[in-house]
Amino acid sequence: MKKYTRQQIIGDIAEAYCSYRFISGLNVIYRHTASRDTGVDGEIELTKEIPSEKDRHVTGKIIKVQIKGTEQEKVNNVYKVNLTDQDIHYLRSELTIPSIVVLKPISEETFYWKAVNKSIIERKVVEFTDVHKFNEKEDLNLLQIFHWFSSIRKSNEMIREILIDQILDVKDILKIAPEEIKTKLKEDVSKRFELGNDMGKLLRKQLKDYINYEPNTDKIGKELIIEIEENFEIFSKENLNSVLKDIK
Q: Taking the CA of residue 226 as centre, how many other CA atoms within 13 Å lie in the half-sphere pointing to its CB?
């Protein structure tokens, strides 16, 4: 006879509780999107207030949600959740889509959430402290900002790839170009590096401005700034000099 395991019961309790709190506390749409143990439990669609009405606009802004239930207690005021290989596979494949991991301790009348980033995926561990507790007054704004952050991350990765492709094309052309146009093409490579640097600086400033503005961004994490910095490291002066040195 097939068993309904304790862990499955805890997982179902966690999703039922968290989905109710998301909807009742933040007025977002929660959709259960997957069968058991497929890597993600559901998704949130952010909504927008309609002035002078009780109804709300749907926005099409989606955040994927992975919900974990636990009977474990905190250790040194920290909950630790180890991600399975299946979790990692899903989160890595969907990294361009905003995703959060939610933890519902069965012993508490609340839950915790944290945005997924590359650091979490690499470490395969999510740590939750009191700053990650669900907060009805703050969390709709934080989720909206997280969605915006994720859009920036996706955009900067696309820009980075386009610039890299263009630079590599110019670099290949330079190898066979006549001497009279090499100088001009080298200047073009330098300008594209400068553009990459400028884009990275602008995006970092935007993120830092929001992080400085928000009283609690621990749920989102400052790792997104680090990711953007890493994405644009290729446009450093050292790499530019290396590229130009390779061109004869």
A: 8
From CA 103, how far away is CA 120, in angstroms rounded?
Answer: 14
DSSP 8-state secondary structure symbol assigned to residue 223: H
Strands 99-105 and 79-82 turn out to be unpaired
Residue 131 is which amino acid? V
Residue 25 has pLDDT above 90, yes or no: yes
Containing 220, the helix (H) or strand (E) segment is none
Give dist(CA 219, CA 128) in Å, integer: 9
What domains can be seen in the chain, in order of their start residue?
A: 6-136 (3.40.1350.10), 141-246 (1.10.132)
- What's the mean pLDDT when you consider all of the chain? 81
Q: Cα Rg for the chain, rounded, in angstroms?
A: 22
Task: Report pLDDT for 110.
Answer: 95
DSSP labels, 14-52: HHHHHHHHHHHHH--EEEE---TTSS--EEEEEEEEPTT
pLDDT at 46: 93
User: What pTM value is reported for the model?
Assistant: 0.75
Cα 67 to Cα 16, 36, 37, 112, 131: the distances in Å are 10, 11, 11, 10, 18
Q: Is 101 within 8 Å of 116 (Cβ atoms)?
A: yes
User: Is 141 or 211 the better-scoring residue by pLDDT?
Assistant: 141
What pLDDT, on the 0 to 100 scale, is given for residue 183?
A: 77
